């Protein structure tokens, strides 16, 4: 769906510092009696350089919205506008890693650069740089089967960052990992994203993860997903994993769960009825 660029005074992708603008976004699946209203209407502005986390019950449309922003799914109604300075402004990290088992770690990380026809020497250098930053330099010539789940997800993150996207879209990237690996990768992602201040839209079920990583946390309702609350974690940047132990962290986590619990119960009841 297309529309005239919005007035910078009232918001939208044309407004100062707004990177992603979503207006009246809806997504339906199926038709007639089988129609499922999955998402919306949803309105949202995300600022340039903001790390925005979305939490909500299963099936509320969080991942669907992420895919709409990525251009992988078309909205049924409404529009998403991105203030882009490049032809391929977004890169996505999936929960299931999405890396190719027949490619080496280096080739996987270089994949997006190959698609963009970046010269091989430059592509290799950029891929190796990100492998080094994520602690994978010594595994460049290995295949994914030789890596742990946490290491494979590092490869996926390195591949996304190697193309230097303006926007990083992350769909529950640590959900399949055990608690210890998840904590380590959360801290690593926090350090990387604070270093380059990239715009990040991050979907998660974990309130702890959202509060640790996010500049802003959005709470979505049960299906069809709408934004019902937003909170700004009161933790200065640069931020470290130490904030997990603060009283303010526990207090805000409890507050968000109070907001979210009814939506989770509604979603669960709908799934079993």
Automatic annotation (TrEMBL):
Protein name, per record: ABC transporter ATP-binding protein
The ABC transporter domain, residue ranges: 20-247
InterPro entries (alphabetical): AAA+_ATPase, ABC_transporter-like_ATP-bd, ABC_transporter-like_CS, ABC_transporter_ATP-bind, P-loop_NTPase
ATP-binding found in the keyword field: yes
Transport listed as a keyword: yes
PANTHER family xref list: ALIPHATIC SULFONATES IMPORT ATP-BINDING PROTEIN SSUB, TAURINE IMPORT ATP-BINDING PROTEIN-RELATED
SUPFAM superfamilies, alphabetized: P-loop containing nucleoside triphosphate hydrolases
Superkingdom per UniProt: Bacteria
Keywords: ATP-binding, Nucleotide-binding, Transport
Molecular function (Gene Ontology), one example: ATP binding
Coiled-coil annotated spans: none
Xref: Pfam families: ABC_tran (PF00005)
